[in-house]
């Protein structure tokens, strides 16, 4: 029996890593097994990195050590951010992943150039273009989420034509390089144009579309890593890229459905769709409003309450007050659950994390599909900082810009209470008929303050 | 068409299929940890970066390799760290607690 070569041992470690990565995602299916998933991923990554250090091609270690220390120095603080900052952290990590994949692709080009095979050039060209556009696109997305850049969509006439032309130029340059590998000067131009395209791709997108964009960028980052696996003939990269790419893709589809976008709209981006302005239509109609005292009395008399949190709740940092309300109501024997719309936060699943951080048990956090069956038997639906995702016009007004969007059927509850600053329409500028129903009580005020007032009233009337 | 391409495509398609089947089962409750975990797994490109940084072709490729190692390793460390932190926050409800 012949002994295994170093390269074969490294490959075996990579196979083990790939298997552990798949198990890692498999165990993420439930919160109970999910911690094993993280551990499996960590073991797989450690194995792969450890084995790579024994690769005979690696002859100098000093810069690797420096880079690993710098990487850990950046990664640890980014792993410790506050939960409200997770979306921008995620966008930034897509940027880092894409940056890394691009850098490797570029290095590989210069190692081979000008003797790049035609096929190799196709792979490198695509990999570097996708990596570069994902890098700048993700930086812009992170800037918008961090509110360094304007949240409002920035649009101009002919935008799609300009953006697609830029992408076309990048692809054309890659094409020229395939045919004429000796024009090495075109390579950095191609990279620059791809970087520009990433900026043009994400700049027009508004803050409300971020859950879709971040999922799409996730998919692109995975794709660039997978393509890098093709370039380097590295199966473990192909596997990791395929897993990350399909994950991002699935999330993009879920987000686009939740926002009522077509599938093609996701593939080519939710980009630059016209912002429907229905302003001026909202005439002053009468609404019923209530005080914190009245709201507390109604809640105290209920048997079953569903709280519907939106991003407004997170902006107001009201999740810990909401937790106090949850405690006050459950102590009275009231059944309290949470209805979570898929786009309730700034990225897929974000609202669940924010509520889990506030110590709300996860078995009380219900998906849209599950919770919608429960609204008709619910005494009070309490909407906090959510608007469009509760708008019944999406269900029954054919002319409405959000018609067809899946919503939380809060209007089917016996009483609806909505905490809102004022009657001004939501992000999309669409009026919400929910607010004018006879069974709806508007609770005007700041989410955090109002929930706090309700909690105080509940404590005061305790006996 | 090189044979390497075919074998890579083979792996890509199968892994993509596995990814679909596995990820489809992840509860929407955990979609944020899913994204941070796949980010950490995707950071496996660090193994390619290490080779570029360590094989000493030219100073230029070494610089690119070093940037790539730092960027992907930060994702690996940060991705696992934040996923772990998030998952610790998900607790099952106890029968009405007293406080």
Topology, element by element:
The complex is a heterodimer of chains A (463) and B (99).
Chain A: H1 6-27, H2 34-53, H3 62-79, H4 86-112, H5 118-145, H6 159-179, H7 186-202, H8 210-232, H9 235-258, H10 263-267, H11 292-301, E1 304-309, H12 311-315, H13 319-331, E2 335-340, H14 350-357, E3 365-367, H15 368-372, E4 380-384, H16 393-396, E5 415-420, E6 440-444, H17 447-460
Parallel strand pairs in A: 1-2, 1-4, 2-3, 4-5, 5-6
Chain B: H1 3-24, H2 31-42, H3 46-54, H4 59-89
Give a quick precis of the structure:
Chain A has helices at about 5-25, 35-55, 60-80, 85-110, 120-145, 160-180, 185-200, 210-230, 235-260, 265, 290-300, 310-315, 320-330, 350-355, 370, 395, 445-460, and strands at about 305-310, 335-340, 365, 380-385, 415-420, 440-445. Chain A has about 475 residues and is of the alpha/beta class.
Keywords:
heterodimer, A: 463 residues, alpha/beta, Rossmann fold, six-stranded parallel sheet, elongated, B: 99 residues, mainly alpha, 4 helices, disordered C terminus
What is the 3D form of chain A?
Answer: elongated
Q: Any idea what the radius of gyration of chain B is? A: 19 Å
Strand percentage of chain A lies at 5-15%
> Radius of gyration of chain A, Cα only, in angstroms?
26 Å
Number of strands of chain A: 6
Please summarize the sheet with the most strands of chain B. none
How many domains comprise the coordinates of chain A?
2
Shape of chain B: flat
Helix content of chain B: over 70%
Structural class of chain B comes to mainly alpha
How would a crystallographer describe the biggest sheet of chain A?
A: 6 strands, parallel
